[in-house]
Design brief:
The complex is a heterodimer. Chain A is 35% helix and 25% strand. Chain B contains 15 helices and 4 strands. In chain B, strand 2 and strand 3 form a beta hairpin. The chains are: A alpha/beta, B mainly alpha. The structure holds adenosine-5'-triphosphate and magnesium ion (MG).
């Protein structure tokens, strides 16, 4: 980009939380007219840095110079007034207010000192139009899907005249088309001289849009690089502190198990009116099955049906040879089925409990009130999973809400894994999880499958599906259109089947 | 289907309206003069202080908080006014002083809640005992008011006289004015919307730039003002001050708010609902008075049942909404 004006300069930022040094003297600068990617593993300190720049947290030491002036905002509002606009990692809007209100809260157009509701709606519609989104803004926010909510949050951030735009994992729930639309918008803003900070775990997106990349690791800065001069493997290597060769071996295809286990679940003609067309499926012990298809093809719906959230209304189903029906999640759990859903906040991480309590919770629920787990057992269990999944935390007594976004995701996985399910369905489990952890989680899953657990894996990254699965079921337009197994699985084969 | 979707959030409100209509019809069919305009107008006049207290409570509950000090503040204000008048102050000064007291009292509770991060339940519980005791300190028993403004003017020249001879009592006018003021605050000002936002999701509201502290202090200040205003209206209505009056009135106010469809967890609700809630409570009272034989405890029993029914209804609506979101 060749611009030399530094719009934002953060120098020597230090932030310590009880038991965690989240940032230890980080320098970070953004120029006007650039997209600057902030990369790092889960818990590296990315969100913390953002929150310090935008006044959510107070820094322990360091200085922030914005637009030539030293600033020290005490709240999001003050940061906004300086010209820094932010989309935080979790969708942070108010579900019970209308879309229009969510976009205009705190800055409603007024007439004679009173809110002009016509003005609010107009402004909201215009803000959404910039992202090519045409929805009814008078509906409650909660009426819309997580993806739309994420776009609304972005629209809100774009709605004010800012000089710096910070986006903390804004694309975690978006599909390709929405991402493309967002990027078009960001490029336009960059052209207008805005500085943009972009955080994501999608490596492709980083290279698509960013000019420079700053990598954080364990609360320290690894370095700032020109995106064009930082090969992908090197970037990953620097993020996780390994050399590129090691990274390469992490990304290779896993070996396909030849021996298929006993049949676990068999279904014939199960479907749900208006949601999924009847399909047949079979899941064997120890198998990793992928569900592939475009967004809206019925991937999540299949999992939801098997988990009894939206139970099937046709066909028949047997588990371990015995006919059953899974009419509720409770029944599913009783049959040894577990599921993590797409949106972790809704699936109920209980954020005011500790990691240990969260992990034991599901276990306790299944075992009933009379089987008590001694504290010692609880800690042993929690420590086991913290280690196995590489959850970054000082100890098992940390509150879930204090973990970084990706580590919360891992704690949720741990909670289900503790129940030792026989079938585990993972809907987008790797969203917001860094590459290193992804590999670790894949490894843990693999080990569990060795012991006979079956895994149903949903991911919109088809490459991930093709790399990890023994068998892939392909869906299109809410219909199962085929299966590919073993050696035949490849990205091309899946794509071909979807396109046919 | 689309029609149904838009309606879900209004279901509790419509249910309250339906209950009100039902009670009214019961009244009409059982008692000959129940339908007169006078009865309806008195519904407002007799329940004005409860109504105004419930308006304050609506703001607090919308923000996800609670205010238990309402009844005590009303009692305190009434005895304060009575004794000020007794000491020779003019009504204007006495009323202004008590409103000011309400504002300061509410603001102090708001500050405690915000700066020390104390739960509203405990702070206002303390406030409840404090204000109650303070009332007895001023004057330990009921104190009548002899000032001509209270005895004559309020009853004679302040009511609005309609052409057909029905008078709208001054207390009713106060209630309606307070309601209009509250509607404007809740729906036309940034502060009002921030109240909803904080009740809906405080963390998100903070990240959206809402000044949580200032808003919370303001909410309890406003509630204090409405409590004191309810106290003033109560004094006008009773023409006396009494430090032991209105025990537990805050619970009636909360009941009215809940019956009016406001979620106790905050973020969802309407002042129109609170008005309906107050009117439903008033109507039950009126029906029982008309009946003559029934004991007034029946009021409490019916209120208890209604509160329960409405909480169940809200639960159902919330579940329906969730289900609907999932299926889209
Ligand atoms: N409020 C808090 N209290 C205590 N510890 C915290 C708090 N917020 C963050 N941390 C800790 O600080 C570290 C950095 O967290 P941060 O959220 O910045 O990570 P991140 O880089 O954004 O990760 P992710 O990719 O998972 O979102 C983590 O170890 C986290 O547990
Ligand atoms: Mg983060």
């Amino acid at each position: 980009m060749g611009k030399t004006v530094e719009l934002l300069e953060a120098k020597g930022i230090v932030k310590t939380f009880p038991g965690v040094k989240a940032l230890s003297g980080v320098d970070f600068s953004v120029s006007a007219g650039e997209v600057h990617a902030l990369m790092g593993e889960n818990g590296a300190g990315k969100s913390t840095l953002v929150k310090i720049i935008t006044g959510v947290y107070r820094k322990d030491a360091g200085e922030i110079i914005f637009n030539g002036k030293s600033i020290s905002p005490g709240s999001t509002l003050e940061a906004e007034q300086c010209g820094i606009s932010t989309v935080y990692q979790e969708v942070n809007l108010v579900p019970e207010l209308s879309v229009a209100e969510n976009i205009c809260l705190g800055r409603q157009p007024k007439k004679l000192g009173f809110i002009s509701w016509g003005g609010v709606r107009k402004r909201a519609v215009e803000a959404l139009k910039r992202l090519e989104l045409d929805i009814d803004v008078s509906k409650n926010l909660s009426y819309y899907s997580i993806a739309i909510q994420q776009l609304i949050a972005i629209a809100r951030a774009l709605d004010i005249d800012s000089k710096l735009l910070i986006l903390d994992e804004p694309t975690s729930s978006l599909d390709e088309k929405e991402v493309a639309e967002l990027f078009k918008m960001l490029k336009k803003l960059r052209g207008q001289g805005l500085g943009i900070v972009f955080i994501t775990h999608f490596l492709d997106q980083v290279y698509q849009i960013s000019d420079r990349i700053t990598i954080l690791r364990d609360g320290g800065k690894v370095g700032t690089f020109e995106a064009a001069r930082l090969p992908r493997l090197e970037m990953v290597g620097r993020m996780i502190g390994k050399d590129p060769e090691q990274v390469k071996s992490m990304e290779k295809k896993r070996e396909i198990r030849k021996v298929a286990g006993k049949e676990f679940l068999k279904a014939e003609g199960i479907g749900r009116k208006g949601m999924l067309f009847p399909m047949a499926l079979e899941i064997r012990e120890g198998e990793i099955i992928g569900l592939a298809g475009l967004l809206g093809s019925g991937r999540s719906e299949t999992a939801r049906m098997l988990f009894g959230v939206d139970p099937s209304d046709s066909g028949k189903l047997s588990i371990g040879g015995a006919d059953t029906d899974i009419s509720s999640p409770k029944k599913a759990v009783k049959n040894g089925i577990a599921m993590t859903a797409e949106d972790r906040k809704v699936t109920g991480i209980i954020s005011d409990l500790t990691i240990r309590e969260n992990i034991v919770l599901a276990l306790q629920a299944r075992a009933g009130a009379f089987r008590t787990y001694t504290l010692k057992e609880q800690y042993a269990l929690a420590d086991k999973f913290i280690k196995a999944l590489g959850i970054k935390t000082p100890d098992a007594d940390q509150l879930i809400k204090n973990l970084s976004g990706g580590n919360q995701q891992k704690a949720l996985l741990a909670r289900w894994l503790a129940m030792e399910p026989r079938l585990f369905m993972l809907d987008e489990p790797t969203r917001g999880i860094d590459v290193g952890a992804k590999a670790e989680i894949e490894k843990v899953m693999d080990e569990l499958c060795e012991k006979g657990m079956a895994l149903l894996f949903i991911s919109s990254e088809m490459e991930e599906v093709s790399r990890n699965c023994d068998r892939v079921m392909v869906l299109r337009d809410r219909r199962k259109i085929g299966e590919i197994s073993g050696e035949d699985i490849s990205l091309q084969a899946i794509m071909k089947m979807i396109a046919e | 289907m689309k029609f149904l979707k838009i309606q879900t959030r209004y279901i509790p409100l419509m249910a309250t309206a339906a209950v009100f209509a039902l009670l009214y019809i019961i009244g009409l069919s059982s008692f000959s003069n129940f339908g007169s305009l006078g009865v309806f107008v008195n519904l407002f006049g007799d329940n004005a202080f409860l109504g105004i207290a419930a308006i304050g409570a609506t703001f607090v509950i919308l923000s996800g908080g609670i205010d238990l000090s309402v009844g005590s503040v009303i009692a305190f204000t009434s005895i304060l006014i009575a004794s000020l008048l007794d000491k020779g102050f003019d009504p204007g000064t006495a009323i202004s002083i008590s409103l000011l007291f309400g504002i300061c009292f509410g603001a102090s509770m708001g500050c405690l809640i915000h700066f020390f991060e104390l739960p509203p339940f405990l702070v206002t519980l303390a406030g409840m005992f404090f204000a109650r005791g303070l009332g007895f300190l001023i004057h330990p028993q009921s104190l009548g008011i002899k000032h001509p403004f209270f005895l004559n003017t309020v009853g004679d020249s302040l009511p609005v006289k309609l052409s057909n001879g029905v008078e709208i009592p001054f207390t009713a006018s106060c209630f309606i004015a307070a309601l209009i003021l509250a509607l404007i605050i809740a729906h036309m000002t940034g502060f009002g919307r921030n109240v909803y936002a904080i009740g809906g999701n405080e963390q998100a509201a903070k990240l959206m730039g809402v000044r949580i502290g200032a808003t919370k202090i303001m909410i309890y200040t406003l509630a204090g003002f409405f409590s004191a205003l309810a106290g003033v209206v109560f004094t006008l209505y009773m023409q006396s001050g009494n430090p032991s009056s209105c025990v537990g009135l805050e619970l009636d106010a909360i009941a009215a708010v809940v019956i009016g469809g406001t979620l106790l967890s905050g973020g969802v609700g309407y002042l129109a609902g609170t008005l309906l809630g107050v009117l439903v409570l008033g109507l039950i009272q009126t029906l029982i008075t008309f009946h003559g034989d029934l004991n007034t405890w029946w009021t409490k029993i019916v209120i208890g049942v209604l509160v329960l029914v409405f909480i169940l209804l809200q639960n159902l609506v919330t579940k329906m909404t969730k289900k609907r979101i999932k299926s889209t």
